[in-house]
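Batch manifest, entry 17 of 40.
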Amino acid sequence: MSEAFIEIDEAYVDGILPRRQPEADKNAFGRVLCVCGSAGYTGAAYFAAQGAVRMGSGVVTLATPERAWPVLAVKLNEPVVRPMPCDADGMLSREALPVLTALAVRADAVLIGCGLGRSDAVTEIVYGLLQCANSPVVLDADGINALSVHKDVLRQTAQPVVLTPHAAEFVRLSGIQKPKTEELAAFAQDNRCILLYKGHHTRIFSPGGTMYRNHSGNPGMAKGGSGDVLAGMLVSLCGQGISPVQAACAAAWLHGRAGDLAANRLSEYGMTPGDMLRYLPELLKRYNTREW
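Output type: structure tokens
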């Protein structure tokens, strides 16, 4: 296979992100659902929800286990934080699925996985939400891990699914160590999904065979929480009506550039995922309706 990548840069992202219409209200910018978090892993849910808020979603709902809810309800002002039934370990229980299903069918895009943990109930919830969703689904972290036994569920979904694995998660999902470009492309095509393979020069593979490569970002982003920010940004763009492939490209570039701003001002050593959230809006000023 010839490695014919479309290179993602600022000009490419400019062609994806629209300017906002002056008469629009919050419903014009998407209602997204983030199914994230567990007891002890509230940070992942926080970063995902705030990534969606900072990327411009009209309404962000975070559904999280009730044992994680008190922490997240205090930390998060903009998202709607909904407590869900959980087990003794603080992870989502099977009883949460009907409530989550009702939320998912009304969402414009759904994110599943950041900080969920691993259990049989979590796996059932991931499968259940994939089968009922009426809109694009982003699977990150433990959402991806839940597919490791039955990834054939990807071929059964009616809606686009975006997977955002790093190298270790992709090994668990596919069994492929150090995958070559053609193997990543084949995975996306065989499983009819969009694959955003995180790493140095993040690559994105569409089910139709088109490949994209991102060059923004730096080693300072290799910190826990960074991928959760990206997942939140990605689901936000999907919820705003941008096609999942283009949403993946724009989110990857903006995420990396926010990391570059943070590194330039604070250092690769000292920057945090929270700093990336802080600098993302600076990048988005170019898409304002007009100068203020």
